[in-house]
Amino acid sequence: MGDPGHSLFLIAKGSVRVLYPARSADFELARLQGGEFFGEMALLNEMPRSATVESVDEVELLVLEKDDFHRILMESPPVALKCLEMLSLRIRNADEQMSSLSEKAMRDSLTGLLNRRAFQERLREESDRSIRYGDSFALILLDLDRFKSINDTFGHDTGDTVLAWIGRLLKEHTRAADAPCRVGGEEFAILAPAADADVAAALCQRLVETVAEAKPPVDFELKVTMSAGYAACPVHTSSPDKLFNIADQTLLKAKEEGKNQFCHPAAPSA
After folding, report:
1. Catalytic positions, written as ranges
2. CATH, residue 122
3. CATH code of the domain covering residue 66
């Protein structure tokens, strides 16, 4: 990846894999075998190579230099057409794989909710939209009560079961436009577009009551409750950081005043 491309490589024997560097490890975009080729993209667009090719086993390659490649394309329309067909298929497959990789990077693996990174991006997007168009939206923060004691008493497998269950409840009991997120260990958030303070308060109450009344999917008695706080944009603030701080302080107030409840934020100063 990044090297200048001067040649097309036709695989005569063996197999190779096409790698794209992801955050944690190289992501395999494709695996090619005898009769297939690689290196054509850099020859066609004269850009540095966009991926790295690594041999899987012993490989024999036929090398076609740039000028010869261009001449064959000009002199043999069937070869050019075949090349375009393979390029189209590769681009589609790579696009699907990269879209899947991007989606996974934005999701929490345990709950399926948006993760903290996605939450932060969406929060800023909603704030920008509110400033630009005057739209309202609400941020709701939720935290499981006494979750550490669940892990300590019943084990982390039970804790994970509870977290995954909470993720399902949040998806089932929010609007289609809302974006439930897991922002920490037992901390969750909901971005609610087109929601004012009254709508946010009603949603907080519904979620707190839903969790308290529902039974976790375990084969023993287990009581799970949740506390919540919220803030609305632009009535409380239009700054995403300040909005988060207001909602967080309101959540802390709900925890300090007895848990299993939600609190309203302080009235905005004039």
Report:
1. 186
2. 3.30.70.270
3. 2.60.120.10
